[in-house]
Amino acid sequence: MDVDIHDSWKPYLEEEFKKPYFLDLVSFVKFEYKNHKCFPSGNQIFNAFNNCHFNDCKVVIIGQDPYHGDGQANGLCFSVSDGIKHPPSLINIFKEIESDLGIPYPESGNLLRWANQGILLLNATLTVRAHQAGSHQKKGWEIFTDAVIKTISDKKSNVVFLLWGGYAKKKVKLIDTNKHKVLTSGHPSPLSANRGYWFGNKNFSNTNKLLEEKGLNTIDW
Hints:
GO terms for molecular function: uracil DNA N-glycosylase activity. This protein has a four-stranded parallel β-sheet with strand order 3-2-5-6. A two-stranded antiparallel sheet has the order 1-4. It is built from nine helices and six strands. By secondary structure, the protein is of the alpha/beta class. The protein has a single domain, classed as Uracil-DNA glycosylase-like domain (Uracil-DNA Glycosylase, subunit E, 3-Layer(aba) Sandwich), CATH 3.40.470.
């Protein structure tokens, strides 16, 4: 695994790349990709960073694990490549946007259009073995992505963090809530959404209100 990450992130993260845990992680990921089918493809592992540059980052959405089905994961949390059937969580995200903002349900589940507007679509774990959910958890990715969240919190101001579900909500401890805004909700997965913890959260319109208050461009969801 080459750390193919956009130059804008390097001054803030290059110390992480030298740490023993990260070197172990690189060895693990290289072995997995050589010996097993893994997702996303090697050149998409750092897609979240390569499509949302450090200076542009104004919203962070935290996912947990990449999709582990064939052709789904593209390195952006909750996103799938063009032409791929929308997974249940993504369907519920789009349904909430539809009811919150009146935006028609989109054809493509590719959230690259969000990343290009300054949304860091960050999974806590950046790789997974095919058809084995959680197979690359606790190998070092979470240490790295926690460092990313803390770095954004420390080095930037007025970022909106969207924390969906119990796992993401725990990341609030890494965020300086005096400098940044945190919006929380249940997870968009059917299990949570069908119990009433997702729909009606208005996270998308509220994100735009918060950005507008700070004189920043709103997101075209």
